[in-house]
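Deliverable D2.4 — example input (structure tokens):
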């Protein structure tokens, strides 16, 4: 968590090496360890399959159907059996609470969904490849309150299955969903600890000010 411009989204893009797409002139110092191995020694495509990402702005493939939004990455990674693809599509849509809303229009363009539905579809798409880690960049900030609450509930459920790294500038949301919290400010890691420690007894004065809303 941290205010706008503190480096949260940039850090997230480092974790699956998307930063290289946004900035071809990056310089790498230090290591980011993923199951004991430096991510910069892992093939980027393989890494991104295991470390999925959901962006702040819902980004389904607008000209593809709801079904094909999830089927496309599966086919791209060599899954060809139609029955298996169909099963995974349904599983993922059920997991994000979207199946009952779209099961009778799976062939409709994803662009016809509401913003909140599109965001849940992108989460379903990210889950299709069974990632070990899911990165989420302010996934609730661009959608209505009903879908926002649905996504927060989904995060709470998913964190029992996979590791989730979520970026947020909202301390209240962080307190509700996070097990561990990193507070960033002006590009620096100010404090890191369990959610309980950060919100009840922060060690840094900056962290305390942010948590109680004195800085934003």
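Example output (designed residues):
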């Amino acid at each position: 968590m941290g205010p706008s411009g503190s480096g949260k989204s940039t850090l997230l893009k480092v974790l699956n090496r998307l930063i290289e797409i946004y900035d071809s002139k990056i310089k790498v110092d230090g290591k980011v360890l993923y199951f004991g191995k430096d991510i910069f020694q892992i093939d980027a495509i393989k890494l991104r399959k295991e470390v999925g990402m959901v962006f702040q702005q819902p980004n389904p493939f607008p000209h593809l159907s709801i079904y094909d939004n999830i089927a496309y990455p599966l086919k791209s990674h060599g899954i060809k059996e139609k029955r298996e693809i169909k099963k995974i599509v349904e599983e993922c849509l059920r997991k994000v609470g979207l199946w009952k809303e779209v099961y009778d229009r799976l062939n409709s363009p994803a662009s016809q969904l509401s913003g909140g539905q599109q965001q849940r579809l992108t989460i379903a798409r990210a889950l299709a490849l069974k990632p070990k880690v899911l990165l989420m960049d302010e996934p609730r900030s661009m959608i209505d309150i009903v879908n926002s609450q649905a996504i927060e509930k989904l995060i709470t459920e998913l964190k029992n299955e996979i590791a989730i790294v979520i970026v947020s500038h909202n301390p209240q949301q962080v307190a509700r969903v996070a097990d561990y919290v990193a507070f960033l400010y002006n590009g620096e890691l100010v404090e890191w600890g369990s959610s309980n420690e950060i919100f009840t007894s922060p060690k840094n004065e900056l962290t305390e000010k942010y948590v109680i809303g004195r800085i934003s």
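The chain has a mean pLDDT of 92.
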